[in-house]
Design brief:
With 385 residues, the chain is of the alpha/beta class. The protein has 13 helices and eight strands. It is globular and about 65 Å long. Bound molecules: 5,6-dihydroxy-NADP and zinc ion (ZN). The site of 5,6-dihydroxy-NADP has 35 residues, from helix 1, helix 4, strand 6 and helix 5.
Length: 385
């Protein structure tokens, strides 16, 4: 196991009727900006409950944050927050809304050009306003981690920043607030969470038995509970399990002390930039293709995954590896996500443009062994069609 430092300062409130607890976390004298998208926060009832919990507090509304949160829209929020002298940001929504609040929390107190905060993957961030998160879509894990993924269409950029200062102060996880999710978003959330676990598990063995078993537990829970969420949308326990799995999938726990990959994510960002695919849609196509192309270096963990997660023990090694990939693909499809780009109406990909964008974004050496070459990327993309 590698050496590691693990520090996660986000306080979690989990369960029914927990939104009201935010009143104890936000000072009554705070000037709060409530950041949201619009649809999800209202449909779920989360925005109303937030309003009720903070009725004594000075709140400013900032809605209209769309999926893949856009830099220019966030600048509107930064200007509003400065005008209103905001000193606390409360995100009510999914990963896009939480990420937007995190970015704005760094940009509001920053005197320079906010775009500079995207440099060096967020390492330049020195100060942030406190952020709280009320989650309405379990997927990103953003509510309990230090990342934010920001898009800027004008520059064809979708890029992650990471900084310990971006950890939310608290996260409210009320599973009843996910009942209104359409099936497509339930599927996206399960597949995104599944791939977060794979990116931290399907690498190479370093005797991190605790991390591997935690990851396998999350994968098994997702395989069991994911399809049930589609079939029984009002089942509280199923929603609760998916919500906690999403948070634990990317809060630093399972990735501490083990190698991490993240190339499916990074490559997926370019597909979102160029073709507008939702985040999880890119992953559903890329992961099976990527595992096939990168078999030689992922062999040992893929065999373990096949055996422990899918019960694949018979046949020669090549057959077992192929079956592990096939079962993964079938699971994504069962969650309602096509695993070929054609399933999203995309018949061809500008492979050269994708590799150019990756290079422009400094992504030359992706993967746990920094060995994903442009030729491999071409091969992966061809296999996604
Ligand atoms: O935004 P609103 O209006 O609320 O509507 C959303 C949006 O249209 C809707 N929705 C959310 N909760 C709902 C609901 N609709 C009905 N009922 C509810 N309860 O769902 C749509 C998608 O929301 P979004 O926030 O975009 O989804 P998700 O949580 O999957 O977040 C995706 C974003 O997170 C980034 C992705 O790249 C993408 O930009 N990620 C962030 C990560 C992080 N910060 O650690 C890691 C992830 O790998 C990921 O990259
Ligand atoms: Zn993701």
């Amino acid at each position: 196991m590698f050496n590691f430092t693990f520090h996660n300062p986000t306080k979690v409130f989990f369960g029914k009727d927990t939104i009201r607890l935010i009143a104890g976390e936000i000072p009554p004298v705070a000037r709060v900006m409530i950041v949201h998208g619009g649809a999800g926060g209202r449909a779920s009832g989360a925005l109303d409950e937030v309003g009720e919990a903070l009725r004594e507090v000075d709140c400013t509304d900032f809605g209209g944050v769309a999926p893949n949160p856009e830099y220019d829209r966030m600048l509107d929020g930064v200007a509003l927050a400065r005008e209103k002298k905001i000193d606390f940001l409360l995100a009510v929504g999914g990963g896009s809304v939480i990420d937007a609040a995190k970015f704005m929390s760094a940009a509001i107190p920053f005197a320079g050009d906010p775009f500079l905060l995207m440099d060096k993957a967020g390492a330049a961030i020195r100060e942030t306003l406190p952020v709280g998160a009320v989650v309405t879509l379990p997927a990103s894990g953003s509510e309990m981690n230090s990342r934010a993924i920001i898009s800027r269409k004008a520059c064809q950029i979708k890029k992650g920043i990471m900084n310990p200062l971006l950890h939310p102060r608290f996260a409210v996880l009320d599973p009843t607030k996910t009942y209104t999710l359409p099936c497509a978003q339930i599927g996206n959330g399960v597949v995104d969470t599944f791939v977060h676990v794979l990116e931290q598990y399907l690498t190479y063995p370093v005797a991190g038995e605790v991390q591997d078993c935690l990851a396998e537990g999350l994968l098994q829970a997702l395989i069991d509970q994911g399809p049930r969420a589609l079939a029984e949308p009002q089942n509280y326990d199923v929603r609760a399990n998916l919500m906690w799995a999403a948070t634990l999938g990317l809060n630093g726990l399972i990735g501490a002390g083990v190698p991490q990959d993240w190339s499916a994510h990074r490559l997926g960002y370019e597909l979102t930039v160029l073709y507008g695919l939702a985040h999880a849609e890119t992953l559903a196509c890329l992961v099976p293709a990527m595992l096939a192309v990168r078999l030689p270096t992922k062999r040992e963990k893929l065999l373990r995954y096949g055996e422990r997660i899918w019960g694949i023990t018979a046949g020669d090694e090549a057959t077992r590896l192929a079956q592990a990939i096939d079962r993964t693909r079938a699971f994504f499809e069962a969650m309602g996500l096509p695993t070929r780009l054609g399933g999203y109406g995309l018949e061809k990909v500008d492979v050269e443009r994708v590799t150019e964008l990756l290079a422009a974004h400094g992504m030359f050496n992706m993967g746990e062994r920094q060995d994903v070459t442009p030729d491999m990327i071409r091969d992966i993309l061809q296999r996604c069609l």
